[in-house]
Amino acid sequence: MEYSIGLDFGTESVRAVIASTLSGEVAGSEISAYKHGVIEDRLPVKNSIRLASDFALQHPRDYIESMKIAVRGAIKNSNVEVDRIKSIGIDFTACTILPIGKDSNPLCAGSKYKDRPHAYVKLWKHHAAQPEADEINALAAERKEEFIRWYGGLCSSEWMFPKALQVLREDRKCYDAATEFIEGGDYIVRWLTGSKSRNATAAAYKAFFVAELGGYPSAKFLKALDPKFENFAREKLSAGLGASGTPAGTLTKEAARALGLSRETVVSHATIDAHAGVPGLGICSKSEMAIIMGTSGCHMMMSDSPVLFDGFAGLAKDGILLGYHGYESGQSGMGDVLDFVAEKYRGEGRGARDESDAHGALSTAVRDYLPGQSGCVALDWHSGCRSVLMNASLTGAVVGLTLKTSLADLYHAHMEAIAFGTRAIVRSYVNAGIPVKKIFACGGLPEKNPVLMQIFADVLGTPIYVSSAANLCALGAAMFGAAAYRVSEQGEGSREQEILYRTIRRMAPKIDRTIRPNKKNAKVYDELYEIYLRLHDHFGRGDDTMKRLNKFRNC
Amino acid sequence: MEYSIGLDFGTESVRAVIASTLSGEVAGSEISAYKHGVIEDRLPVKNSIRLASDFALQHPRDYIESMKIAVRGAIKNSNVEVDRIKSIGIDFTACTILPIGKDSNPLCAGSKYKDRPHAYVKLWKHHAAQPEADEINALAAERKEEFIRWYGGLCSSEWMFPKALQVLREDRKCYDAATEFIEGGDYIVRWLTGSKSRNATAAAYKAFFVAELGGYPSAKFLKALDPKFENFAREKLSAGLGASGTPAGTLTKEAARALGLSRETVVSHATIDAHAGVPGLGICSKSEMAIIMGTSGCHMMMSDSPVLFDGFAGLAKDGILLGYHGYESGQSGMGDVLDFVAEKYRGEGRGARDESDAHGALSTAVRDYLPGQSGCVALDWHSGCRSVLMNASLTGAVVGLTLKTSLADLYHAHMEAIAFGTRAIVRSYVNAGIPVKKIFACGGLPEKNPVLMQIFADVLGTPIYVSSAANLCALGAAMFGAAAYRVSEQGEGSREQEILYRTIRRMAPKIDRTIRPNKKNAKVYDELYEIYLRLHDHFGRGDDTMKRLNKFRNC
Question: Collapsing DSSP states into helix, strand and coil, what is residue A108?
Answer without folding.
Answer: helix
